[in-house]
Amino acid sequence: MLKSHISRIAGFMHSNRNGWLAAASLAILAALASTLASVGANDAFRPQPKRPQTPATKTPAQANKTYTLYTGLWRTDGSFVSTIRIKNVLVVAPMDVTPVIFMADGTPYMLSPVHIPVSGVATVNINDALAAAPPSIASHNSQYGSAALLYSYSSPGHVTASVAAIDAPRSLSYTYPFVEPMNMPGHDSRQVLEGLWWKRDQAVTGFVTLTNTTDQQRTAVLTSIRPGNNSSQQQFSLSPHTAQMFDLREFGGDIRGHDNRAGGIRVEYEGSQGAILVTGGLVNESEGYSADLPFWFHDMSSSSPSQITYASAGLMLGKPDPMMMPGFPSETTFSIYLSLRNATERPLDVPLQLNYTPEMGMGGAVPVTRNLPTEHLAPFEAKQVDLQGPLNAAELKNFNGSINLSTSFTGHAGILSSLRGVSIRPAPMCSRSAPRPSAPPQANSRTIGVSQTGTTPCTACGIQRVRRRTFSSPSITETALASTRSLFTWRLRPPL
Fold first, then answer.
1. Would you say 218 and 277 are in contact if contact means Cβ atoms under 8 Å apart?
2. Secondary structure of the chain in the HEC alphabet?
3. Closest CA to 380 of 356, 419, 328, 345
C-alpha cells in the first residue's frame, strides 16, 4: 500500500515536472521576446547611419517656387567688361542659379545653371558668354542690355547679386544691383522714381537706361526737372524685356551749361515696383571719372509723413589713412562734395549734421558732432553744396580722416531725392594719355567688348591709372542712400 502510494506520488511528480518544464520554457521565450522588442524600440530612437534616400515629397507649403531677380544694365561697348557676382545667402543648402542675358531688343539668352555652395559666391562673365553665343543669339547681339537670375526654393530672398561694368583702360566703372520684385497688394499702380545728376566739372556728361522686366508692353514718361517747375517731358514705349539707353542731352537734360551743375530726372510708369528698372551714370572720359546716377522711389501716397534720416558714412577727408598709404602717393588728399535735390513743389529746408572722431592729438578719441548751416532748397531745385566753408568753420580745415554726414526731415520717401556725399582725390591726368571720347553704345551693333584686366599706362610718362570704388553702409533709417567714394590712384613706373 505504501509502495503504491509512493508510485502515485512519483507519477504525479513526473507529470508535474513536464508541466513545469513547459511553463519554464514559455517564460524564457516570453522574456526573450520582451528583450528583443525592447532592443527594437531602442533602435527606433537611436540615430541610424545615413543611407541614400529618395527625398520625400514636400507638402504644398514647402514646395519649391521659382524666383527671379533683375538688373537693368550691362555694357560691353568700348573696353567694358561686365561681370555678374552672385551670392548664396543660405547657410543650410547650396543653390543652383540660372543666369539669363537679355539683349537690348529683348532676346533672351539662357546660360547654364551655376552651382553655388553654401554661403558661396560665383561670377559670370557676360563678355565671354556673348562670345560663345549660338548663331540664333549672336544675330541679336548688342552692346548693352539687361539680365535676370532664376532660382528655386521654398521661400524668396536667398540670392543677392550685382553686375559690374568696368572699363579698366579708361578707368570707368558702374555697379548695379539685382532686385527681386515683390508683388504686394496695392503696388500695381503709378510708380514715380526720382533721380539726380550733378557735374563735378564742366566736361561731365551722362546717360539713362530704361529696362522693361515684364512680358508686357510698358510705357515710361521721363521728365527733366529744373527749378521753378521748368521741365521737359518725353514718353517712351518699351517692348517686353527690352532696354533703351539715352544721353541726358537727348531729352532736355542738357548739362553742358556753365551754371548748370545739377538737375533732376523723374520717371513715371503704371505697374508694380520693378516692372521698369531705371539705371544711369555720369562720366568724364578725359579724366577717367564715372559715377552711378541714383534713382529712388518717391512715395506719392497720402499717408502721414514720418521722420526720415539720410546719411553718408565714412567720407574720406584730407590725407588718407596711414594704413592705406602704400596705395597712394604722399601728396594725395581727399575732398568732399554734396548734391541735394528737392523733388516737391514746396520749399524744403535741409539741416545738415556731421560727426567724426578726432585724431589723438586733437582732444582724444571721443566722437564729435557738429551742426552745419541749413540748406534752403526752392521748389524742384537741385544744387551742389560748397562744403569747404562750413568744414573750415567746424575747425576741420586741416582734418585727416573720415567723417559722417547726415540730415533728418519730416515727410515722405523721395521728397529729398538725394543726399550724396562723395570723396575723391582730384588729380590731373596726363594729357598725353587722355582717351578720346567714344560714341554711345548702339543697340543693334554686333561688336562685343574684349575682356581686359589690369591697367593701361601712358606710353609717354609711364603713369598707370587705376580707379577704385567702394560703397559705405546704408542710411540710418532708410536704405535710400549709399555713399560712393571714388578713389583714383596713380602708380608710377618707368616708361616702357
1. no
2. CHHHHHHHHHHHHHHHHHHHHHHHHHHHHHHHHHHHHHHHHHHHHCCCCCCCCCCCCCCCCCCCEEEEEEEEEEECCCCCEEEEEEEECCCCCCEEEEEEEEECCCCEEECCCEEECCCCEEEEEHHHHHHCCCHHHHCCCCCEEEEEEEEEECCCCCEEEEEEEEECCCCEEEEEECECCCCCCCCCEEEEEEEEEECCCCCCEEEEEEEECCCCCEEEEEEEEEHHHEEEEEEEEECCCCEEEEEHHHHCCCCCCCCCCEEEEEEEEEECCCCEEEEEEEEECCCCEEEECCEEECCCCCCCCEEEEEEEEEEEEECCCHHHHHHCCCCCCEEEEEEEEECCCCCEEEEEEEEECCCCCCCCCCCEEEEEEEEEECCCCEEEECCHHHHHHCCCCCCCEEEEEEEEEEECCCCEEEEEEEEECCCCCCHHHCCCCCCCCCCCCCCCCCCCCCCCCCCCCCEEEEEEEEEEEECCCCCCCEEEEEEEEEEECCCC
3. 345
Return the pLDDT at 445.
34
Least Cα distance to 67 among 160, 194, 138, 135 occurs for 160
Homologous superfamily (CATH) for 65-177: TM1070-like (2.60.290.11)
Distances (CA, A) of 176 to 192, 279, 408, 416, 481: 19, 8, 27, 22, 14
Q: Are strands 368-377 and 108-110 parallel, antiparallel or unpaired?
A: unpaired
What is the pLDDT at residue 94? 96
Whether residue 102 contacts residue 109, with contact meaning beta carbons closer than 8 Å, is answered with: yes
Q: Is it the case that residue 485 has pLDDT exceeding 90?
A: no
Mean pLDDT of 108-134: 97
Contact partners, residue 397, CB within 8 Å, separation at least 6 = 391
- Asked whether the beta carbons of 445 and 84 are under 8 A apart, the reply is no
> 36-58: per-residue pLDDT in tens?
444 443 443 344 444 444 444 45
Average pLDDT, stretch 383-395? Answer: 87
Is beta strand 218-226 parallel, antiparallel or unpaired with respect to 289-292? unpaired
- pTM over 0.85? The answer is no
The residues with which 382 forms a beta bridge, in sequence order, are 341
d(CA 366, CA 369): 10
Q: Above 90 in pLDDT, residue 358?
A: no
